[in-house]
Automatic annotation (TrEMBL):
This is N-acetyltransferase domain-containing protein. The keyword Acyltransferase applies. PANTHER family: [RIBOSOMAL PROTEIN US5]-ALANINE N-ACETYLTRANSFERASE, GNAT FAMILY, PUTATIVE (AFU_ORTHOLOGUE AFUA_3G00765)-RELATED-RELATED. Belongs to the acetyltransferase family. RimJ subfamily. It comes from Ciona savignyi. It comes from the Eukaryota. InterPro entries: Acyl_CoA_acyltransferase (IPR016181), GNAT_dom (IPR000182), N-acetyltransferase (IPR051531). One of its GO terms (molecular function) is acyltransferase activity, transferring groups other than amino-acyl groups. Residues 10-170 form the N-acetyltransferase domain. It holds the Pfam family Acetyltransf_3. Keywords: Acyltransferase, Transferase.
Length: 173
């Protein structure tokens, strides 16, 4: 099963139905912090929405088409963000991540992504990892750059929940 230690305080694992309320609460608490860079936030407006997303996410993990994982504090089991593969196809993996505003600026996301890269290359045998970042999202770009991803210099129109956004594309092989 997928459960990975990032450091002695943090672990990554897929969410289960038991995490629905906690996951919904974290999104609500961080709504204004997340909304500028994550268009899907507007589509999570009740626990039901979160449950629906969780069900499809769990199905995708079973099908091997994604591996989205919660970032949990080991001691408290508190969910503080998400990090993992939002899409897996043709041996490419698209990494997506977000962190609650109380936990940013500590280098935590870089560590989580490093673990996800290791899972992608070693366990899932992926050939290429990709990170999309909005041009104005310097924090996300900085994470990609710290991890050794290279920006291919093109803006790509990416469709999320029917909303098209221009994204910078970072790649790592």
């Amino acid at each position: 099963s997928h459960c990975y230690e990032v450091n002695e305080d943090i672990l990554l694992r897929p969410l289960t139905m038991k995490d629905a309320q906690q996951s919904y609460d974290v999104v609500c608490k961080n709504r204004s912090h997340l909304k500028p860079s994550l268009p899907w936030v507007e589509h999570v407006n009740c626990l039901e929405d979160e449950v629906k997303w969780l069900k499809s996410s769990m199905q995708d993990i079973q099908n091997g088409t994604s591996l989205q994982m919660g970032i949990f504090e080991t001691k408290t089991s508190k969910l503080i963000g998400m990090c993992g593969f939002v899409n897996i196809s043709d041996r490419n993996g698209w990494i997506g991540y977000w962190l609650g505003s109380d936990f940013t600026g500590k280098g935590l996301m870089t560590q989580c992504c490093r673990k996800v890269m290791e899972i992608g290359f070693q366990k899932l045998k992926l050939k290429k990892l990709i990170i999309h970042a909005k041009p104005e999202n310097r924090k996300s770009q900085a994470v990609a750059e710290r991890l050794g991803f290279v920006c291919n210099g093109e803006l790509q129109n990416v469709l999320y929940f029917g909303v098209e956004s221009e994204m910078m594309v970072y790649e790592c092989t």
